[in-house]
Design goal:
Length: about 375
């Protein structure tokens, strides 16, 4: 069997979200399977940490980069002598036309409910290119049962044509107390802190989190923690910074911007709790990353997070600052934190990139039999 993969989501120097999903999935697929032939299609040379080429794993790099998925990739597939049997995309977008069966990965469809949270250009592309991918798909991968149910509900897709390939998390690399201290010093973190990890974008609900944190500080004056917001700027983030100013939280909120993989694990390990109070998620990787190091989680009571976290997090109403503030007060108690830490770690261990890659490999095998 020959599988083509659009590897561009994985081939990024700063990987977050879909980029992390793509990189981890490819890395573990490479370790698991030495017999299937894979061609990884890229618009720029593979980065040094991408899996090295070998007889069953090759890279095909070509351009031009602009509109690569729309023109360069389809034409390359059309005129290729050795076409793959299937073409798998790590994200929503597949070749605009393809002579081989295509399989997109759908991470979430939340943008359909919140068009105001995107620029007009991005929203148009998300809606139309995703729909095109789904309509033309031979099969579909979804990152959660919730995302699968949304695809079925919105696009009336046959459930049997969707496989769930969840996100995962691997145990973090070992690190020392000194290394953690270096990271905390770098970001000027000198007090206990709550942590939220993710790109600064509207669905992360950070303005309301700031309102909740302000309320928490007023009702729980001691000890006085910090709120650390770790993630690069995405889009429509101006309200976040104006809210900090309005609530006079400048000296209580720390923005790290982009963090490295090691810094991420250092920050998780020392946090009082991590918060994922999004209005919408397709899965929620930061929650299980936090749990894998024993740090408890406060999470929105929304379908994807309920599916992934089950009863092993403290759930909140993502529309209520009071609900989030109350949860911060509850989780500050050592007994509550300890109970959630133990339960969360056990739950997180069921999600691994190795298991996710096995499910992907199983999907490819089943498609080969069915085709």
């Amino acid at each position: 069997m020959n599988i083509g993969i659009d590897g561009n989501e994985a081939n990024l120097s700063r990987r977050v979200g879909v980029g992390q999903f793509g990189y981890q999935l490819l890395t573990h697929l490479y370790l698991l399977d030495t017999t299937t032939n894979y061609t990884i299609y890229l618009k720029s040379a593979p980065l040094p940490d991408m899996p090295p080429a070998r007889p069953n794993w090759r890279y095909l790099v070509f351009g031009p980069s602009p509109m690569w998925t729309k023109f360069a990739l389809p034409l390359r597939l059309l005129f290729s002598i050795n076409r793959p049997d299937y073409f798998y995309s790590l994200g929503h977008y597949t070749p605009h036309f393809s002579p081989v069966p295509v399989i997109p990965t759908i991470h979430d469809l939340g943008y359909l409910d919140t068009p105001s949270q995107f620029t007009q250009k991005d929203y148009y592309q998300l809606v139309n290119w995703t729909k095109r991918s789904l309509v033309k798909a031979f099969h579909i991968a979804a990152v959660s049962e919730f995302t699968k149910s949304e695809i079925i509900r919105i696009y009336n897709v046959d459930p049997s044509s969707i496989s769930v390939i969840p996100n995962g998390v691997d145990p973090p690399p070992s690190f020392t107390k000194k290394e953690v201290e270096v990271t905390l010093k770098k970001f000027n973190i000198n007090a206990p802190y709550f942590l939220t990890v993710g790109t600064l974008k509207p669905n992360k609900n950070i303005p309301l989190l700031l309102e909740a944190f302000s309320l928490y500080l007023k009702t729980n004056p001691t000890p006085s923690p910090l709120l650390v917001i770790a993630g690069k700027k995405g889009w429509l983030f101006d309200e976040i910074f104006s809210t900090v100013t309005r609530l006079k939280l400048t000296d209580k909120v720390i923005f790290t911007d982009f963090i490295t993989e090691s810094e991420k694990w250092h920050l998780y390990s020392r946090a009082t709790a991590s918060l994922l109070v999004s209005t919408y998620e397709g899965f929620g990787i930061p929650a299980i990353e936090s749990q894998i190091v024993g740090t408890p989680v406060i999470a929105s009571y929304i379908p994807a997070l309920i599916e992934v976290l089950k009863t092993n997090a403290l759930f909140v109403d993502p529309t209520s600052a009071v609900s989030i503030s109350d949860a911060m007060a509850q989780i500050s108690k050592p007994s509550k934190r300890q109970a959630l830490s133990v339960a969360g770690l056990k739950s997180a261990l069921s999600y691994s990139w190795n298991n996710s890659s096995k499910l992907l490999l199983k999907m490819f095998s089943q498609l080969s039999i069915a085709f």
